[in-house]
C-alpha cells in the first residue's frame, strides 16, 4: 500500500523500478506493481492527482479522496508520470501510459496558469473562496495561482517535464517504436538501420483524428505500436487511408510492415462526452458524477455558471453539446448540457432546519471548461464532481 509523503514516495518508487530493471530483480518489480495498483486504483483522483492529505502532503488510506480538502501536489502527479514511464520501459502496457496521459492533461498542467507566470501547489477538485479564506483546514486550497512559493519545487518541475515531453510520448524497444502520447510534432529515430522522421499532425485532445507521416530514404521494415486509450470505446486505424492488419496486445495496436517514404498512418479515436462515476467506496462522490471528453476532465466554474455550484445537479437528459472556442482560455473545447439548481426561495435566513421541507429545482443550462484551465479568469467557485438527479 502506498503511504507517506506522496512526492517522495513516487520518486522512491521510480528509483525502485530503475533498480528492478537494471538488476532483473523480479521480487522488487512485483513490489512496484503492487504499489502501482494501489495508487492508481484506490488512491488516485480522476485528474491523476495523488496525495489526498494536507497533513504530511501524504497518502492516507484506500478510497479516501476528498475534493475540497485535497492536496494533490503538482509535483506528486509529475512523480507519478516518472514512475509510469519507468514501468512502461519494463513492460509496455497501456495502463501506464493511460495514467501518464491523465496526469499530464489534467492534474499537472492545472498547476500552471495559461500565461506561465503563476502556479498552484495544490490542485483541488472543489473550491469555495470563502472556505479557503476562513477555514484553516482549507487554507492550503488557493482560489488563484500564486506567483511563487516558499518551497518552489512545482514551477521548475513542470518546466523540466514539459521540456522533455518527447521522452514520454515515445519509446523504442528493439525494432518496435511505441507511441504512448499523441502530441503533435516531429521525432527522428533509427529503425532497421534507417533514419526515419515521423511528423504527427493533430489537434488532439480536441480532435478525434491524428495523422502520422513517415519520411525516409527508400523503405524500412519495423513494428509500430500505437496506444489505444482506456477512455476510447471506438477507434479506427488505417495506413494511407486503407485498412491495415494489426494485432492488439496489452492496450497497443501493433503494425508490422515494410514502410515506405511518405506513408501515412490515419488514426480516429471517437470522443463522445462521458458521464463518469466513482467507485462507491469513495464516500465523497456518492451520488455525484464528473464529465470527461477524451482524456480531458471538465469542471464547472462560477464565471460561466454563477455561484452556489454545490447546489447544481445534472439532469436525467443532459443533451450534451460541445464546441471548440478558439478565443476562450487560449482555445478549448467547452461542453454544455442541461442541469438543475436547488431553489432556496422557500427558506429564510433564520431557518436552519425544517421538517417535511419542500424541495424544488429550477432548470439551468450548464457550461463546462477543461479542468486544467480553471482559475484563469475571475476568482470564484469551481467544482468537478456535481450531484445528479438520477442516482
Chart the SSEs and their pairings.
Layout: H1 6-23, H2 26-42, H3 74-90, H4 94-108, E1 126-127, H5 129-134, H6 154-163, H7 166-169, E2 170-173, E3 176-179, E4 185-191, E5 194-202, E6 209-215, E7 219-227, E8 235-239, E9 242-243, E10 247-249, E11 252-260, E12 264-269, E13 273-276, E14 288-293, E15 296-301, H8 302-305, E16 312-314, E17 321-325, E18 332-342, E19 361-370, E20 382-383, E21 386-388
Parallel strand pairs: 3-7, 16-21
Antiparallel strand pairs: 1-20, 2-3, 4-5, 5-6, 6-12, 7-11, 8-9, 8-12, 10-11, 13-14, 14-15, 14-21, 15-19, 15-20, 16-18, 17-18, 18-19
Helix pairs in contact: 1-2, 1-3, 3-4
Question: Could you explain how this protein is built, in words?
Answer:
The chain has 391 residues and is of the alpha+beta class. It has helices at 6-23, 26-42, 74-90, 94-108, 129-134, 154-163, 166-169, 302-305, and strands at 126-127, 170-173, 176-179, 185-191, 194-202, 209-215, 219-227, 235-239, 242-243, 247-249, 252-260, 264-269, 273-276, 288-293, 296-301, 312-314, 321-325, 332-342, 361-370, 382-383, 386-388. It has 8 helices and 21 strands. A 6-stranded mixed beta barrel has the order 14-15-19-18-16-21. It is globular.
Amino acid at each position: 500500500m502506498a503511504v507517506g509523503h506522496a512526492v517522495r514516495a513516487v520518486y522512491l518508487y521510480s528509483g525502485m523500478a530503475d533498480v528492478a530493471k537494471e538488476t532483473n530483480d523480479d521480487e522488487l518489480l512485483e513490489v512496484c506493481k503492487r504499489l502501482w495498483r494501489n495508487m492508481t486504483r484506490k488512491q488516485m483522483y480522476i485528474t491523476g492527482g495523488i496525495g489526498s492529505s494536507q497533513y504530511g502532503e501524504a497518502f492516507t488510506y484506500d478510497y479516501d479522496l476528498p475534493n475540497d480538502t485535497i492536496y494533490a501536489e503538482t509535483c506528486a502527479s509529475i512523480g507519478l508520470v516518472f514512475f509510469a514511464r519507468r514501468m512502461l520501459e519494463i513492460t509496455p502496457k497501456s495502463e501506464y501510459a493511460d495514467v501518464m496521459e491523465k496526469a499530464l492533461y489534467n492534474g499537472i498542467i492545472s498547476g500552471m496558469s495559461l500565461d506561465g507566470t503563476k502556479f498552484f501547489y495544490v490542485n483541488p477538485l472543489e473550491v469555495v473562496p470563502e472556505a479557503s479564506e476562513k477555514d484553516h483546514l482549507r487554507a492550503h486550497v488557493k482560489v488563484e495561482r500564486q506567483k511563487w512559493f516558499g518551497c518552489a519545487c512545482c514551477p521548475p518541475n513542470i518546466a523540466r517535464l514539459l521540456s522533455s515531453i518527447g521522452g514520454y510520448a515515445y519509446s523504442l524497444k528493439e525494432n518496435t517504436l511505441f507511441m504512448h502520447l499523441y502530441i503533435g510534432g516531429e521525432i527522428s529515430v533509427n529503425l532497421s538501420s534507417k533514419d526515419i522522421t515521423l511528423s504527427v499532425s493533430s489537434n488532439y485532445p480536441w480532435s478525434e483524428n491524428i495523422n502520422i507521416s513517415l519520411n525516409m530514404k527508400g523503405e524500412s521494415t519495423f513494428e509500430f505500436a500505437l496506444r489505444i486509450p482506456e477512455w476510447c470505446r471506438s477507434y479506427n486505424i488505417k495506413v494511407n487511408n486503407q485498412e491495415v492488419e494489426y494485432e492488439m496486445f496489452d492496450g497497443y495496436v501493433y503494425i508490422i510492415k515494410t514502410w515506405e517514404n511518405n506513408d501515412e498512418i490515419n488514426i480516429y479515436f471517437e470522443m463522445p462526452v462521458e458521464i463518469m462515476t466513482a467507485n462507491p467506496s469513495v464516500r465523497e462522490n456518492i451520488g455525484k458524477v464528473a464529465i470527461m471528453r477524451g482524456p480531458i476532465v471538465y469542471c464547472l466554474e462560477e464565471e460561466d455558471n454563477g455561484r452556489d455550484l454545490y447546489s447544481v445537479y445534472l439532469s436525467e437528459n443532459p443533451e450534451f453539446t460541445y464546441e471548440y472556442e478558439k478565443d476562450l482560455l487560449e482555445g478549448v473545447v467547452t461542453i454544455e448540457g442541461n442541469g438543475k439548481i436547488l431553489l432556496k426561495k422557500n427558506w429564510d435566513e433564520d431557518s436552519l432546519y425544517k421538517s417535511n421541507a419542500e424541495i424544488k429545482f429550477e432548470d439551468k443550462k450548464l457550461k463546462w471548461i477543461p479542468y486544467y484551465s480553471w482559475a484563469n479568469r475571475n476568482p470564484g467557485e469551481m467544482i468537478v464532481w456535481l450531484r445528479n438527479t438520477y442516482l
